[in-house]
Write a structure and sequence with these properties.
single chain, 14 strands, seven-stranded mixed beta sheet, 3 domains, alpha+beta, 37% helix, Ribosomal Protein S8, Chain: A, domain 1, 10 helices, Hypothetical Oxidoreductase Yiak, Chain: A, domain 1
Length: 360
């Protein structure tokens, strides 16, 4: 399907985000960090976690306005060992606190072979894959997770019991290539419904149910008391597996961090827990051998014959990397609603709105 949306240069949007956040009293360094994480998602085609969240999601500018986000947060170390740390994020921008937490994790892994860090009092941290990839880009294996208030129904029920609770895993393949998996443990990330709303489209059956547990194609169903289905959609197609994975994230990100599991997280305050881990490949196998085998795996997977209506079988991260290459050249497409929201912010703050690359 042809995409006729206006496109903007990644660097222009990155600068816009940083300038807007700095206007709302976020330190320049932190504003640039946040901009990098959000635009990384848009470059990958993960539009559910990119710049579109900036003007309306309470994890960003609305939260800064309301005092739900601490613009000048200072991380507190609650417990620490050579390989672990438990941090309090001080209610800061989730994308900023998460990056610092993963950096601490990487330092421990590079020194001691493995690092594991939890964060309590965290906020929305964008696309989890960014943080797992921080490890892979340094030749380590990385994981990142976070838990959020319930939006997904328990398997076999109509009751919300856990959040989208994403899991991200990344590993180096050599030559700058990465294996990168970033997935919600619900059938789909909640942001996918936001995209459908902006574009005036229905959602596929199998993503969500209404308040009575009946399948729904309404992209606004969450606002009407419905919920997302677990990964697997229903019991007959193994929804209990997605539900179980979501609860695992609740345990590691929520209970272990001290933030609390999804059912007790205060929804209005956006509080959530985060969990990060990284480890050295050399502690187990020669890094070059690991990368070579991972490359062999990728090549064999890509050579598998696809179904008739599928172009090719791909590895986790392939689609996102192709999107990155395309959007670095052609620009990041934005929905008209997002453009108008950003223009309103630009007018309010006196910050210039970038000009679209494909303006006629």
């Amino acid at each position: 399907m042809e995409d006729n949306r206006k496109r903007f240069a990644a660097e222009d949007l990155r600068a816009l985000i940083a300038a807007l956040l700095h206007y709302f009293e976020v330190a320049q360094k932190d504003a640039h960090t946040a901009a990098e994480v959000l635009i990384d998602a848009d470059l990958k085609g993960i539009e559910s976690h990119g710049i579109a969240h900036l003007p309306w999601h309470r994890g960003y500018i609305p939260g800064l306005r309301e005092g739900l986000i601490n613009a000048r947060a200072s991380i507190k170390v609650l417990r620490e060992s050579p390989t672990t740390a438990a941090l309090d994020g001080d209610g800061g921008l989730g994308v900023v606190i998460a990056k610092e937490a993963m950096e601490r994790c990487l330092d421990k892994a590079q020194t001691s072979g493995i690092g594991m860090v939890t964060v309590t009092n965290g906020r929305h941290f964008g696309a989890a894959g960014y943080f797992a990839e921080m490890a892979a880009k340094k030749g380590l294996i990385g994981m990142a997770m976070c838990n959020v208030p319930p939006v997904g129904v328990a398997a076999g029920s109509k009751t919300r019991a856990y959040g989208t609770n994403p899991i991200a895993f990344a590993a180096p393949m050599g030559m700058g290539k990465l294996f990168s998996l970033d997935m919600a443990t619900t059938a789909v990330a909640g942001g996918k419904l936001e995209i459908a709303q902006r574009q005036g489209e229905n959602i596929p059956i199998g993503w969500a149910v209404d308040s009575e547990g009946k399948p729904s194609s309404d992209p606004e169903i969450l606002k009407k008391g419905g919920g997302l289905l677990p990964l697997g959609s229903n019991l007959e197609t193994s929804a209990y597996k997605g539900f179980g994975l979501g609860l695992m994230v609740d345990v590691l990100s929520g209970i272990l961090s001290g933030a609390g599991f999804g059912l007790v997280l205060p929804r209005r305050d956006l509080v959530m827990g985060q969990w990060f881990s990284a480890w050295q490949i050399e502690a187990f196998i020669d890094t070059r051998e690991f990368e070579n085998q991972l490359n062999d795996l990728a090549q064999q997977i890509r050579q598998i014959e696809p179904l008739e209506n599928i172009n090719s079988v791909i590895m986790p991260g392939d689609k996102e990397e192709q999107s990155r290459q395309d959007r670095l050249i052609d620009g990041i497409p934005l929905d008209q609603e997002t453009i108008e929201q950003l223009e309103d912010l630009a007018q309010e703050t006196g910050i210039s709105m970038p000009i679209a690359m494909n303006m006629n």
